[in-house]
Fold this sequence. Notes:
Layout: E1 8-11, H1 28-40, E2 45-47, H2 55-63, E3 68-73, H3 84-99, E4 104-109, H4 120-132, E5 136-142, H5 149-155, E6 160-164, H6 177-183, E7 187-191, H7 208-211, H8 214-227, H9 231-240, E8 247-250, H10 255-263, H11 281-284
Parallel strand pairs: 1-2, 1-8, 2-3, 3-4, 4-5, 5-6, 6-7, 7-8
Helix pairs in contact: 1-10, 2-3, 3-4
Amino acid sequence: MKFKQSKIILGSANFNQNYGIKKNFIKKKEIKKVLNLASKSKIRTIDTSPLYKNSEKIIGLLNKNRFKIISKVAKPKTIRRKNIRKWLIKNTKISLKNLKIKKFECLLLQNASILLSKDGNEIYESIKSLKKRKLTNKIGISIYDFNILDKILKKFKFDLIQVPLNILDRRLLENNWMKKFKQRKIEVHVRSIFLQGLLFLKYDNLPKKIKKFSKQWFVWENWLKRNRLSSLQACLAFVFNQTNLNGIIVGCDNANQLNQILKSQKQKKNFILPNLNIRNKKLIDPREWTS
């Protein structure tokens, strides 16, 4: 199975900062190699955030107009409603300057649940104004909790949604979500396909909070063994077999790993998945691991 490489979006959460379960960190020299390989491999988009320390400036120095940029905004808790729009415009322009680009491909609200707060309408109108000002081509939301999604979609209109999807967390594939997004003409991008690297770990190396899910982990490890698949191969095959996705965010630790991802073409397309469709947030939501 050949990957549809145009759908791959390069994740940058570990650019020059610790990220994920293994605290992976890519230095500037290796980032340059990753971006060069990504460009040669027809990857055309990078997913980033001003919250990723100085990754914006690094991308700005190394991009050279090769990649479109998707980024995120998160409203500060202390800001007053009347100042939201001004703050958003100011910080968007700072990010664009750091990235050395004129506009974003898409700007996402980092935590969509804020739309259901008392400031929700002002936040929505403010991010929509960025599109009118031609500071972004599209606006969207990043979702952790599917339970609030219907309320948000009934009230607000977005171009793109970013959601988790992996072999443990298949909520996106339930409750006709893909059909609903298609009806609303919303692009779907998926993240956490490796669950921040957790799916690469053997049971003995799991954090204490995760080890209580031993039954599920032994099913996962035994299934990989029976099917003669690495965890990387299984995670990629599962996600790339979902035909209706518009973008797949893939993080990597170095250029060699990205090359491994790009070359993993001989996947088993029709394997029977293990019974690991898990809904427990303490496992599938990384925010719960440190709480």
